[in-house]
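Structure (tokenized):
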């Protein structure tokens, strides 16, 4: 059985039907904003913190909707499975800025999926939730 990496992930969408994805420095694939919870931090607290650190988007914890737990092949840790506690957040058109370890961010629509290099968890599990 492959080792697991636990993360919190934000499926952030806007009124134009776009979803926010980020690419960390030193990687090639885009994924949802988020990351590993700090010790003693809940999954929701982690996603709120990571979203601010990575994108500058500030949202109250009550603004998030629990999507559930999703798992797929880890994009940047060979031989690992990533297990994500996923949360949805709908924002008004907002200026997101790459912060922390983020090299690039993009707002993508469903028509951009084929042209965007995406982590397996994002492509297979999380982004379909953005357009359901």
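Design, position by position:
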């Amino acid at each position: 059985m492959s080792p697991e990496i636990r993360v919190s992930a934000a499926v952030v969408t806007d009124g134009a039907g776009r979803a926010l994805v980020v690419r960390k420095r030193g990687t090639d694939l885009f994924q949802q904003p988020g990351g590993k919870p700090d010790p003693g931090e809940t999954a929701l607290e982690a996603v709120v913190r990571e979203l601010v650190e990575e994108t500058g988007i500030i949202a109250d914890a009550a603004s998030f909707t629990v999507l559930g737990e999703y798992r797929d092949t880890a994009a940047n840790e060979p031989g690992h499975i990533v297990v994500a506690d996923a949360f949805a957040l709908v924002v008004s058109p907002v200026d997101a800025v790459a912060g922390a370890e983020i090299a690039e961010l993009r707002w993508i629509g469903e028509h951009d999926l084929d042209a965007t290099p995406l982590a397996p968890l994002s492509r297979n599990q999380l982004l379909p939730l953005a357009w359901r």
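Reviewer-requested clarification: Helices lie at 43-55, 120-130. Residues 4-130 form a domain with the Nucleoside Triphosphate Pyrophosphohydrolase fold (CATH 3.90.79.10).
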